[in-house]
Amino acid sequence: MGERVPAGPHIPVLIAGGGVTGLSAAVFLAWYGVPTLLVERHREPLTDPRARALNPRTMELYRAVDLEDAIQEVRSPIAGHGVVAHAETLAGPELMRLPCRMDDNTTALSPCGWVAIDQNQLEPVLRDRAVSAGVDVRYGTEVVAVDDGPDGVVALLRSHRTGHEQPVRADHLVAADGARSPVRRMLGIGHDGPGTLARKVNVYFDADLSEPLRGRKVVVMTLRNSAVHGFLTSIDGEKRWRFAISLAPDDDTAPSENRCAALVRAAIGVDDLPIVIDRVSDTPWEISGHVTHRMCAGRVFVAGDAAHTMPPVGTFGVATGVQDAFNLAWKIALHHRGLAGPGLTASYETERLPVARQTTRLTVERYCLVNGGPGDARESAVRQRMMMFGYTYPAGAFVPDDATPHLVEDPDHPSGAPGTRAPHVPLEHDGRPTSPTDLMGRGFALLTGPGGPGWDRIAAEVADRSGVPVEHHRIGPALRDPTGTFTRRYGITDDGAVLIRPDGFIAWRTPTATDAHTLAEAVDRVLFR
Prior knowledge:
CATH topology of the domain at 10-77 and 111-191 and 291-389: FAD/NAD(P)-binding domain
Helix content: 25-40%
CATH architecture of the domain at 10-77 and 111-191 and 291-389: 3-Layer(bba) Sandwich
Mean pLDDT: 92
Structural class: alpha+beta
Shape: globular
Strand content: 25-35%
Largest sheet: 9 strands, mixed
Number of strands: 26
Distance between the termini: 27 Å
CATH class of the domain at 10-77 and 111-191 and 291-389: Alpha Beta
Low-confidence stretches: none
């Protein structure tokens, strides 16, 4: 319970935090027609590239809200770069080269591919879409007090520009305000995990590294020798660079510019390298592994880095935050429309917390591996691929059947069970390629085999009874299955059916035909009513 705050103007959803997770939540909620206010304590959007790519599963979610094309129009300056390696110095021989995530062929698993886009390029795209959809976005504004009660959340907002404070009432509050989340702390929600793995200081500099690069297109180079340890990334793909220097555990201060220049030269391996230091980050930042104890506290939901911090490997930090946002958005939307019980929004924590723990564990292991720890690099890459597409929900807003999935399943051999992502199958709709993932929408999709007459009538009857759209799609002449793998990958017969949630997860399935009453009961169970 936070501080008692007087009531103010009402908004259905308040989002604290304007990073990728908060902005994505705003976009998704606006797409579902839920009025939203987003506040971000920084005065302007991010300028540092940070995350450099989006994985295919993340792109599936953006594709669902018609953002795929806008995102693909923006390309990272390091698009096409593929070298991820370890060395003592950039000029010296590589000690180990790791598989590049962007080289992973995922066409058998998704209609979407990897997209090279920097975080500071992505956030303006999300912000512009949110604003154009009617979201009230306020930079330089933060939540300074929260009172979470049975009838909603009252938050006190403070403008950094004017110092003015304004209370607002919200039906729901999404805390996406970063790893040190003030909102999470106000509510007394703790976190645990492996903790701090490394502390870094970013050095931004200009230099011509063409000679030590020897033609390599570097994504990231981990450089370690007796003088320095850190990782090097390109900012512009040419002459602007960032070197993240590792600090000693008891060192709280950034090195001077002269010292940073010496450490950069030691990492590059060229003693007389001409460099120009642009800036050194004011305070150290941490690479850590933490997971919140709770992701749901009454009507407050914790998402993104506020819920889970993980090492920057495999784009999982951004991906997990976007998944949080979509999982939460469709549930809040149905609750907002009076079509679901409170158990639906509470299932956000039931579903997402185990995924946060598993993903954090995986990324910590991966980070330790790429920094010289034990393990097999290729096995680690396989596990990353499985986590990207094969994460499952052990319990939540679905009707389980006998095929209870593992926490992570092999996406190349999907179970098709409720609680798992709807497997990709290459389909054709009126001659155009499509996929079951393209059925993600504002309601449920009922996807049926070529048999079982009567599914159209059943879907329409259940939609009318429940008030929730249930759109029927039948494998047949209009929606062809050219590979003939649909029923096998979904574990049904020709007259069976699967019910797909708005976020692309399977809510219910029946191997054979059934009646409207059974489907209606399933929808009610999914909606917790």
